[in-house]
Amino acid sequence: MATSTETIRTGTGADLVAAEDVLLFVNAAITATGQREFRSTAYQQRLSLDFLHEYVRVNYRRVYAAALALDINDHNAVRIVQGLLESAADATAEEKRTEGRLIAARLAKLPPQRVYRLFRVLRGAKVNNRRTRAIMRDWLAARPDPAHDAVKYRAGLKTAARHVHLRFGGPGEPGETGDFLFRPGRRPRYRHQLLDAWRRAHYEQGAVDKLPFTVAEGFAARHGMKREVFLERMVPRMTRLERLRTQGQRSAGNDVRLPTDIDLTVMPLTRLALYVLSLGFEVRGLHRKELTHALRTAARRAAGPHAGSWGRVAAVLDDSYSSSGSGEKRRRPLAVALACHFLLEALAAPGAYIPLWTSGGTDPLLVRPWGPTPLGTRVLDALEHGPDRLVIVSDGWDNAPPGLAGEVLRVWRTRLDPDRRTAVVHMNPVYDADGFDVRHLAQGVPTAGIRDAEDLPALVEIAQFAEGRTGTAALYAYLDRQVARFVSGEKAGAHREQA
Amino acid sequence: MNRPELAGLAARPAQVWGGIRLVPLVREQPVEGLRLHREVYTGYGNGVVDVGPRTHYTSYIPHGFVADWSGEGARSAAYGTQLGAGTSPGNPPPRTARLQRNRHHRMAKRQPGDRLRFLPLHLAMEGYLALHFGGPAVAWEEWSRQALRDGLSPRAEDAYMGWSVRGLGDALRAFEIHPGQCGVMVYAADALAAAFVLPHPDDYRLLHPSLVQDLYGELVHQYALYGAPVAEFAARISDGPHLRTLAGLRAAARAQEREWAEAHDTLFARELLDTSYAFDRVYRMGSFTLWRFLPPFLRNGEGQHIGETITDHKGQVAYLKTFRLSEAQIRRGHLLHRLSDADWRLAQAAVTLGTTEEELVRRIRAAGFESLLRVGAQRRKPR
């Protein structure tokens, strides 16, 4: 496989094809999550993504592994790790070494529930080679508290431990966790508080609130505890997202308060945008100041060193009906657009930012997904301001009239701005299952997939390769740089925080 | 009046989903003084309608429309489950509406206040089914005794539910409603399947999903099933040397939108808008009138639509709903018209149709009207 890839890469035509395939895969790996989208079902999305993974894994294995170093989403990271471990026989020893380092670095960044699910899938697929066992053992050894995992991810840890023949109990810990998982009831009590709380929670309500929230929920239901009282007691044990999620249930009735126990300003930008959009218009209007402040702070943090360095920026932001996403990805495209709005405001030179929503609205906080997508007209409006950069955030379904945005951009590039004074880039948050890529607007305009607005500066960098003016060599050099940075533990681009 | 006046409604760019093309119709100003909303019935679409003494029919009736010309625009209670705060002394429970039984009195029925309830598409369909329903007016000996006694009864036509028209449900779900949109034209494989116009954009937003519960002819069903995906009319801007400024580019973009609107009215919807119809008044409500209409049943290969409409005092359409007849249905209407024009004399009808009497008899049988003919009618000596 590897040799055939090398021969393909020699011709220049094939060179371009390879570069296109790489970008296509990166776009898909950033946006697609195998969930239902506005215009395609979960099944279509999964089918399309499965094909793409297999195609790239077989033909461009090096790139496939290197994608782990980019800002791809967790779903695809897990898929890639699984694919690499399943087809270990296709890789050379050298490749395996690089892959192993990449996988270890990526697993360390993934949320634990995803990793445990990956381990379960690997066990289901009967992947149990020496490398897989070593990777799993290393990851498990690096977990800060095995007892916590044993309580919170009981089934996951059990499966993983069985799969790699893990021995619990070192010098400090006399095998409690192992007994907890595999021989429940053997010990009358545990020395570790969490394990003992789990034991006691079966018959004692007081022990429930010492457990992690997700575990405690089951016990609370078993004891018939009142939901409001239970949630109030669990607040200190909840993660930030759990606190936000239960906010509506904790406050009585349709209260219009913002959470007091959560600092919104430290939340990741896109998460925050999703939260803001989940609030009603009334609440958003009442707390305009706090919400705007939180969004601005998060955006400034995400912009980091790039803040204020982009010059005059115009943005065309899609808030058409299709940006409502689907039942599984609720308002995701709209949240990305909203987050991009605040991020671009921070990136642009002060006062030199022009946002244009497709609906014609001017209040970003009260944005709602409604109406058609007249992208062409809005792009024209944006170009009239003569910006240095034009950023279009849209799912690419330009329908009023269809294809006008592409035509406007094409004519602008070829006739009105041939020396590229304005840099145009299209960010697309939706994977198009039929096209095996995100939808493009026009030939000369680079399109990049986007999942979290925080990655915008890094993605704009990748999108330059799609313009076809930089060579394939530059793309591979870029990938190698990212891999080196990622493996050595530095953050590749702006890494998003765990919420 | 002999044709629907769609003045005040402008076509906007179409949205395509597979073989279905939906063309939004936008009003500058909503029609004053008329609102339309939906009334949901129990029985999952099984309905019975009393149309006269000891006469009723059973049909698929998912909902009725209520036209309200009182000018107040008072909303009825929302249907479906609602979540609300618990009841307390100061907080009375939300008003609940009892769903109507599935037995209805008449297709169009005045309700308390200035409101009229009618069953959408039933008026139009009944108009078509009742075409020369009385049967032969003169007792020529070719006609059977049953035909002279009962007319065309029983008369039946088939239609398909919107759910079973392939792609229509998805097309409606993914459709992005325009601001101010009051209507839509549905095309299946670029054949006009239905037109739906309402007086107010808010009414349209509520009734947009009801299109999937409507009736569609066999032709529409088959076109949607076997037709290939239709192409989008993407905008094209020719970049000649004249295009030097942004203003020029904007003008070219505007021209594209205008061209589409014109092309739609003259090319796509022409068969609906340029045919002259036979209008039949059903009900007069203030300055508005509810009509149903029948096409001329011409056999020129173009689509023929039956439908119902509410017009204001100037004859402009406030409400419109049409049903595209399939080829066999057009043939039946055509045949009945020709027979009636010839005073139900076979020989005369055969002459106007340019055919022989035997052939005409064959056509009557093929159209499903065999029970009209006396046994052995075609073997009689022509007179």
Tell me about this structure:
The complex is a heterodimer of chains A (499) and B (383). By secondary structure, chain A is mainly α. Chain A has a domain at 295-470: Rossmann fold. Chain A is built from 24 helices and 7 strands. Chain A has a 5-stranded parallel beta sheet with strand order 2-1-3-4-7, sandwiched between helices. With 383 residues, chain B is an alpha+beta fold. Chain B has a domain at 9-71 and 100-134 and 155-235 and 247-327. In chain B, strand 9 (108-111) and strand 10 form a beta hairpin. In chain B, helix 8 crosses helix 9 (346-353) and helix 9 (346-353) crosses helix 10. The A-B interface holds A 38-39, 253-254, 320-322, 359, 370-373, 376-377, 380, 383-384, 399-404, 406-408, 410-412, 414-416 and B 12-16, 24, 85, 174, 176-179, 232-237, 239, 243-246, 249-250, 252-253, 256-257, 260.
Task: Give keywords.
heterodimer, A: about 500 residues, mainly alpha, Rossmann fold, 7 strands, about 55% helix, globular, disordered N terminus, disordered C terminus, B: about 375 residues, alpha+beta, nine-stranded antiparallel beta sheet, four-stranded antiparallel beta sheet, 10 helices, 18 strands
Largest interface: A-B, 32 and 30 residues
State mean pLDDT of chain B (0 to 100 scale): 86
Q: What is the helix fraction of residues of chain A, given as a range?
A: 40-55%
Relative helix content of chain B: 25-40%
Question: Which class of secondary structure composition applies to the elements of chain B?
Answer: alpha+beta
**Mean pLDDT, all residues of chain A:** 89
Beta-strand percentage of chain A?
Answer: 5-15%
Order of helices and strands of chain B: EEEEEEEEEEHHEHEEHEHHHEEEEHHH
Instruction: Give, in spatial order, the strands making up the sheet with the most strands of chain A.
Output: 2-1-3-4-7
Give me the CATH architecture of one domain in chain A, please: 3-Layer(aba) Sandwich
